[in-house]
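User: I'm putting together notes for a lab meeting next week and I want to include a structural view of one of the chains we've been expressing. I don't have a solved structure, so I'd like a prediction I can at least talk through. The sequence is below, exactly as it appears in our construct file.
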Amino acid sequence: VQLQASGGGLVQAGGSLRLSCAASGRTLSSYRMGWYRQAPGEVRELVATITSGGSTKYADSVKDRFTISRDNAKKTVSLQMNSLKPEDTAVYYCNVNWNSLNFWGQGTQVTVSS
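Assistant: Thanks for the context. Below is the predicted structure for the 114-residue chain, given as structure tokens.
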């Protein structure tokens, strides 16, 4: 499975960005997609995940600001990020989890200036 993420960039605090990720390669069934992020000197952390059936999970720090969605037919997952804060600055990674296997995208930088 290959994952290609896009949509990162530089934005001022309070602004919005939308990340997208497209999966290609092996066809999987019932897999979870999601976004993780890693700030400099920090461990990678979960941002949001979504199952094939549409069940979502969010980190407390992004609840009510970020929205994850997916298109199963297109094998894409998106992350709408609103009310961005400087502490959201990180490299964001797209993830597919299937049968305990993890596949990762290349990461896209999100920088929020104060």
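A couple of points you could mention at the meeting. The longest strand covers residues 90-98. The chain is about 0% helix and 55% strand.

User: Perfect, that's what I needed.
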